[in-house]
Design brief:
Helices cover about 75% and strands about 0% of the residues. By secondary structure, the protein is mostly helical. The chain is globular and about 45 Å long. It starts with a helix and ends in a 6-residue tail after the last helix. The relative contact order is 0.24.
Amino acid sequence: MLLGALFALFALFYACVGFGGGSSYLALLALWGVPYAVMPAISLICNIMVVSGNSFHYVRAGHLDWRLLLPPALASVPFAYLGGRMEIEKEHFLLLLCVTLLASGIRLLLNYRMYDDNTEPYRLLSYGVGGVIGAILGFVSGVVGIGGGIFLAPILYNLRAGRPKQIATTASLFILVNSVSGLIGQLQKNGISGAVLDFWYLPFLVLLGGQLGNFLTVKYIPERIVALLTACLVLFVAGRLGLLLWSPAHF
């Protein structure tokens, strides 16, 4: 039950800033000794559950900007599928996961103040730049088993490509399409094993956590505060995973 509670907690925090939490789900599964071959599929399924709710609420509130979403999303889908089908060794997978978590956490920690509705007017993202960004993030997302939004959002902030709610909406939908595409690739590679079905309860718990996160963001908690808390949690899990990588006997 502790694993389920942690999944729900991460989903709550990540949903507050428009993310799915895939990188942290993977780290938790690794810490719990789940077979690494099925970890991406479990993570992507949980991602889909969380960001589906995020996307619905953001789009209904009128924050969708198609010009911001389409360039990276269209380029990311085929590359996420290819990444999902790519075979990767256990040690390489865990190292890539640790690096992914560290980069995500550091980026969030350095830029958590960007999650504020006082962002200045944005400039339009070109299709070329958006496509390159989407292709790279899509491939990495498919390989590792995350949605990529935790990287896309800071990039869009640095480019001043949209307002906070628009970027959060774009990140949520980007994660959704990447997660679906990456999951298809993962399932074609490994199929649906019993190890995945053993964790059937996790998607339902993250759905509840994600819905609560959306509610709290809208009603009570400033996005930048949740982004700061999320960064700290991600870095903690990355550090714990890094220690395990230095002690292979634990796996």
